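S.,

Sequence below, as promised.
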Amino acid sequence: MVDDLKKARSLLEGGCTLALCRGRRCVTSAAGGIGDLLRLQAGNEDFRGFCAADRIVGRAAAFLYVLMGVRAVHAAVISEGALDILRRHGVEASFDRCTAAIINREGTGLCPMEEAVAELSDPQQAAAAIAARLRQLQNQRASGVRLQK
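The prediction came back faster than expected:
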């Protein structure tokens, strides 16, 4: 496991925003955001036992990692809520920096994915809420509409 986590962290430091490693198998993304992680979680690949490194891990990402069955997650930045979720579900967690919450890209409030799962404790419900929020955000972008709080 140590080698898998080390390899994932190395890929993260090399420019990826997400890396999942187990043995010789590595899956990476440089897209940013939670979309790729959601697609990986919902796909047909089995990630049980993988180690992950991610640039930002909030509660939403933590729920997806739990569903994927990863055994360890390293985050450059992790929220306190995400750390709690991972540890409650037996996922080893390490980080460079821990913060109270993940904020949105504009810095004006909570990340929309964090808002989507704020009151949830079930990983399956969280995955559905994340997918719904992503669809909502994509529809808003496509229509040029931006909702203000």
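The domain at 2-143 is CATH 3.40.140.30 (Cytidine Deaminase; domain 2).

Coffee later?
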